Fold this sequence. Notes:
The complex is a heterodimer.
Chain A: H1 3-15, E1 20-25, E2 34-40, E3 45-50, H2 63-66, E4 82-83, E5 86-87, H3 90-108, E6 113-117, H4 123-137, E7 142-144, H5 151-161, H6 171-175, E8 178-182, H7 186-189, H8 191-203, E9 208-212, E10 225-227, H9 234-247, H10 253-259, E11 260-261, H11 263-274, H12 277-284, H13 288-300, E12 304-308, H14 310-313, H15 318-331, E13 341-344, H16 351-357, H17 372-382, H18 395-403, E14 409-413, H19 417-420, H20 424-433, E15 436-441, E16 454-457, E17 466-469, E18 474-478, H21 491-501, H22 513-525, H23 551-555, E19 560-561, E20 588-589, E21 608-613, E22 639-642, H24 644-649, E23 657-661, E24 666-673, E25 681-685, E26 718-724, E27 729-735, E28 746-751, E29 756-762, H25 769-776, H26 782-787, E30 791-797, E31 802-808, E32 814-821, H27 830-835, H28 843-848, E33 863-865, E34 870-871, H29 872-880, H30 887-894, H31 904-915
Parallel strand pairs in A: 6-7, 6-14, 8-9, 8-12, 9-10, 11-20, 12-13, 14-15, 15-16, 21-25, 22-24
Antiparallel strand pairs in A: 1-2, 2-3, 4-5, 4-16, 17-18, 18-19, 21-26, 22-25, 23-24, 23-26, 27-29, 27-32, 28-29, 30-31, 31-32, 33-34
Helix pairs in contact in A: 3-21, 4-16, 4-21, 4-22, 5-15, 9-11, 9-12, 9-13, 9-15, 18-20, 29-31
Chain B: E1 3-8, H1 12-24, E2 29-35, E3 41-42, H2 47-52, H3 57-60, E4 61-63, H4 65-70, E5 74-77, E6 83-87, E7 92-95, E8 100-102, E9 105-108, E10 112-114, E11 127-129, H5 133-145, E12 148-152, H6 156-167, E13 171-175, H7 188-200, E14 204-206, E15 211-216, E16 222-227, E17 232-234, E18 237-240, E19 244-246, H8 249-253, E20 262-264, E21 275-277, E22 282-284, H9 292-306, E23 330-334, E24 347-353, E25 358-365, E26 368-375, H10 381-390, H11 398-401, H12 405-424
Parallel strand pairs in B: 1-2, 1-9, 2-5, 9-21, 11-18, 12-13, 12-18, 13-14, 20-22
Antiparallel strand pairs in B: 3-4, 6-7, 7-8, 10-19, 15-16, 16-17, 23-26, 24-25, 25-26
Helix pairs in contact in B: 1-9
Amino acid sequence: MSEAVIASDKSSLAINPELRNLHTTCAYCGVGCGVDTQINDDTRSITVKGLATHPSNYGRLCSKGSALADTIGLGERLLQPQVHGKATSWDDALNTVAQGFVKVIKEHGPDAVAFYGSGQLLTEDYYVANKLMKGFIGSGNIDTNSRLCMSSSVVGHKRAFGTDTVPGCYEDFEQANLIILVGSNTAWCHPVLFQRIKKHKEENPHVKVVVIDPRKTNTCDIADLHLPLNLGTDVWLFNGLLNYLAKNKQLNLDYINDYTQGFEESLQAALLSAGDLKETANTLGISESKLTTFYKWFGENEKVVTLYSQGVNQSSSGTDKVNSITNCHLATGRIGKPGMGPFSMTGQPNAMGGREVGGLANTLASHMDFTDDNIDRLKRFWNTDNLTETQGLVAVDLFDAIDQGKIKAVWIMATNPVVSMPNADKVKKALQKCDLVVVSDCIEKTDTMDLAHVKLPATPWSEKDGTVTNSERRISRQRALLTPAGQAKHDWWIICQVAKRLGFKEGFNFETSADVFREHAALSGFENHTTRNGFGRRRDFDISGLQSISNKEYEDLQPIQWPVNTEHPNGSPRFFAKGEFYTSNQKGNFLALTPKLPQNSTNKEYPLALNSGRIRDQWHTMSRTALAPQLNQHISEPFVQMHPGDAVKNKFNDQQLIKISSKWGDMTGRLNITEDVKAGDIFAPMHWTNQLSKTGRINSVVNPVVDEFSKQPESKFTPVTVSSYPAKWHGFILSREEITWPDVDYVVSVKGKQQTRYDLAHNQDVTQPIEQLLNWLGIQNEAAAKAQQLEILSYQDASNHLYRLALVNKQGQLQGVAFMAPNTDLPERTWLAMQFEQAALTTRARHALLSGHAPSGEDIGAIVCACYSVGEKTIEHAIKVKGCLTTKQLGVELKAGTNCGSCIPEMKQLITRCSQ
Amino acid sequence: MKAKLVLIGNGMAGAKLLEELMSSSPNKYDITVFGNEPFGNYNRIMLSPLLAGEKTLEEIMVLDRPWYQQHGIELHVGEDKAITQIDRVHKTVTTHDGQQTSYDRLIIATGSKPFILPIKGTNLNGVMSFRDISDVEKMIKASNLHKKAVVIGAGLLGLEAAMGLCGRGMEVTVVHSNVVPLNRQLDIEAGTLLQEELSARGLNFKMNAQTQSIEGNEEGNVTKIHFKDGSFLETDIIIMAIGIRPNMQIAKDAGIHCEKGIVVNDTLQTYDPKIYALGECIQHRGGTFGLVAPLYDQARVLTNHLSEHGVAQYQTLPSATKLKVTGINLFSVGQIDENNSEGDECETIIYRDKQQGIYKKLVLKNNVLVGVVLYGETKEGAFYNELLDEKKDLTKMRPYLMFGRSLCDEMCDEMYNKNHEEISTNPKVLEGEEK
């Protein structure tokens, strides 16, 4: 075939490429939306839209999901194994990991090694990781970032239901008359579920929404009632509700009597702590009337769903908060029936899958706890003698043990604890001391990857293949859209390879992810037939109905809600309508709860309470979302929200930089003064990493306090103090090429279209600002710019310390701009950023560039009258529209030609031309 | 009977006065005009384009002879009609050819004459100045016959003359006593850009040069120009463009008080209350003039006075300058350096886009604009001129000032609206409200 033919083939492909369609599941939050993708294998590019048939989203996608196609580039990927900073072969890397682990285990025992996993691992990855650590290495030291996310819900569920079961489903929101959103900015964190709720409310105006959140978030847009509770006081609120229901005889006594136990003690505790409405309102920091309204609505509405998320979970009393909610639903029997129930909303795409396989240090496997019969059962199923019989170390303890040198080898999978853990600086130091840090991830540069001795390239969302489970127990396929790039491998494969090198040949002979899934499904059904009483199942999690599916059936697996077994071959939406709890006597448990304030309290030295959370367009530590320019536009810098009163007290101005300090660390962010937070509280986002910001890691500040039962950190309350960052100047750079970070105190980098933005500030003056800005843009001096055919534009108002610089390349495109000012009064970056997308700058844009503003006013054309700056277009307009047909008339109208008169001949020509 | 008004001089200032007077009070005076150039009124500023061949004589005429007839103005022009004497006692003027005319009001607008260096050889053939149409005709003729030209003086006129001759195929060297051309209007950076640009267009420069003498041959034609540093240049013609001096001889002869020029008060009256003067021949509050804008202002003030419309007073404002060389845009007004002669510390805002040949400098004192240098891009010249004349406080506008009028307007409007909003917004309720 001649070259010409190949070329024409390619061009025809470009017009009408052979595209494949695949359905998959979104990489982000716990809603678990179906994604319909179109794949171009030639260009390794995809387009995405919401999958219309997926029961999580019915075609909807949020801003993050919609941008998935922009996050699959290879630029930031880790594509080859590395050992001690050097690229190497898989064989070498795997041997290094195995030998490292073997050495530590031999010398210090299995509890000197640990795995730290993630809710972004697929169920299959998770299953083999858990199997290897607990079943074969023989330690319980496998915990995951789900600890930071919903472990309080896990324990809350177990305490109330005997097992970690989410009793309801998304459809319940669409059948409810009252929807209570507790500690959840659903609008931003679970946008598609929020859209479903919003639509339901719009179609059914009687439906009420209550938002319980210390902050006034965007979720409040649909709220009929917002209760801005004092931080951490939720248990008082729901204890008060239990009292109210009892007092007003709105209990479901049949349900309580038939299916539950411990109600009396629970009510007693509620009476003690929240018996008085006025006092309770006072503790909560809200008005009595609002509180009564909420209680009244709950009492009146049989169909009520209480959704809760991190605001409940991330607390030193997180588990109690969960149970204060389950208490109210059990007491009214509003559970497991259409339109009612407590609902834990998870943050990660596969937090639920992790819980199912037992990927937390305090569960064994497959919803089995560390009991003798479970241990015995699992030993037999896995055919192992090494199975650990004790729980391992949970996240905070695990990293403390690394810090103390008790754990000497750790393998971190698909997560970024240096950013996401509380007291994150300590985590960083611990990893720096650790003998062997293995990190498997798809991204080359993360704060955690930077500390790895062995870097293992894992496949990312677009290349992985397996299953995930969403918040409503629905298992969906995440399908490989593209073949693995470079040398990237699936996590389950990597783990199995290490397992074999550790000598565990038998348990890890999986050929495909379907093999792993079948074993996982089989374990869920293993000796899970009947209870002692002769009905029901021993364990809630049972997908034995899928244990024999073929590879083809696995490939085509449609979204299905567990349990999937002989009783429910097509899955089942709800649990517990008729009791049948997974406790020893099948009764649901009420918990007697004594409310507790957050463990550390504010004081004179640390007078403000730091609350942390998420923003709409970023997810976790931004390693994926920050790759999509459109997601960096909504909020692009780490910020701190503060009430106006506190800002006045501290003499702060909006948009200035402030430093937040706690006993544990510091963070610097841009101040956003807003009444959306309560006086005494401040809020900062949890996303920013050292890859994107020099000082924006909020988890450096967050206290390493955990819930007594769940060990989930209290990320929503840390006593802090604030101070003004003493900036001598503020600035920003936009550059077509990525630049080396300037050596200044404050740097935040933001990827945009065709450019990266760097927001800067420093506490010392710069001596030669224009030269410095040029250097920061990567150009040594004017001569170097000339050599690279870069043109320099500059602006300086030295007495006001204003300096601006722009570089234009030989194509006439904007190459970079840099602005510096003594205060935060810098122009908007939007228009400047847009100029990078132009094939070449227009003359008008070039002239306006260093103003930072779009060219203003009309284009008046070339100047004709220089004395009065009257342009050709203005004169033409005066001739054509205003009927000025002599130079004198033009002079009267525009002053043109009335001074030196040099332009009169040209004006005459224009008159002739225009009147023809 | 109407009062008799006599105007000596039919140049830029005189003609503007006539125009203004005709529109303001056309029937108040019997007007007689004497001019020693044999034309109606032309735009002297356009001599450079005329020399460059970009404009024709016809195109630069402002008031032709029929215009005078239409307005009933008696016009006498040509060398014979040059006024040689003013008789203040009898209130008459006399022309070279002996015509005597009486006046009730006399206006002197005799303009200026080029300054000629007091050195040897200035009377040689080929040494000329650049002042009127006859000079232009001489230069055009010389350019057809000769190859080499030297222009002494890199002021506006000198550069325009040099570029005109250059455009007519001559090999031209500009000789200047300063380090950069146009040093009264441009700072060193802008001056350097201008020199680079003109050099690129084929002009030669000899800067920092002091002329010693001019040498000629036996026929009395210029051949060389010698400098104080001992160097010399061969040349066929020399244009002197080193400034002008007020043309005040007849006033002086008539005993009217003169210093550097004919001294006038704020209503442009000389020491003789019947006699007024305007234009480049006058001295007002110690200053003399060489640019067109103040002349026009003077014409308007004097018209107001002659029309007995009130008490307009002439005030000297900084004047903007431009160079009339096609394709070169520059604009300068007021103080051009941070430190002025009074030792005031001023602040500057500077914009550079070297590759586009753009340099702009704004000089401010206490946030009032006191000087502007624009090179390469002069669109906003008029805007700055206004701000400078108004002595407007620019504290708020300063961040946008460099980028011109419409951005300043837009941003100041925005600030106004923003402040307005803040005042009218009620404080928000602190807790979320029940609906």
